[in-house]
Amino acid sequence: MQKITPFLWFNNNAEAAVKFYTSIFKKSTIGTIARYDKAGEKVSGQPAGSVMTVEFQLEGQEFIALNGGPMFKFNESISFVVNCKTQKEVDYYWKTLTADGGKAVQCGWLQDRFGLSWQIVPTVLNELLLDKDAAKAQRVMQAMLKMVKLDIKKLKAAAKAK
């Protein structure tokens, strides 16, 4: 068990969200599913027998999803970064995470259909932004700021431009 585990609050669709996430990431598993009992039903408002928590892993990272009710919603102050080596990877995660009601935001950010924010980032971006040539890094930053889904070819082209 890892020391710190992200705990994600859903209204009543934690199990559907977990199935969605584990279908996207190759190294994923669904673990223990706990259900509300009569006592939990009274406190949470969730029906006895319904899913309370789902433990799961994505790429070795442990998470817990909770059906806690409608009191809290996700917002952009918390997001998960998916580091991608290739444009094919960027395109895959972008397409699958925005499917069925997700939405593109800006600069590689998106929200999935459950409202969770993700950053789909090519690993080369950090390298380009940290280049010793400040002008090159600035061109890359300016190019990135104009993008919704990040494009590796365009980022590299911005770095090479004069």
Q: How big a fraction of the residues is strand?
A: 25-35%
Overall geometry comes to elongated
**Secondary-structure element order, as H and E?**
EHEHEEEHEEEHHH
What's the number of helices? 6
What is the strand arrangement across the widest sheet?
A: 1-4-3-2
User: Structural class from helices and strands?
Assistant: alpha/beta
Largest sheet: 4 strands, mixed
Work out the number of β strands.
Answer: 8
Provide the descriptors you would attach to this structure in a database record:
36% helix, 6 helices, alpha/beta, 162 residues, four-stranded mixed β-sheet
What does this entry look like structurally?
It is a single chain. With 162 residues, the chain is an alpha/beta fold. It is 36% helix and 27% strand. It is built from six helices and eight strands, in the order E-H-E-H-E-E-E-H-E-E-E-H-H-H. It has helices at 14-24, 38-44, 87-98, 123-129, 134-145, 152-160; strands at residues 7-10, 28-35, 51-58, 61-67, 79-84, 103-104, 109-111, 117-122. The chain has a four-stranded mixed beta sheet with strand order 1-4-3-2, with helices on one face. Strands 5-8-7-6 form a four-stranded mixed beta sheet. A hairpin with a 4-residue loop joins strand 6 (103-104) and strand 7. Helix 5 (134-145) runs antiparallel to helix 6 (152-160).
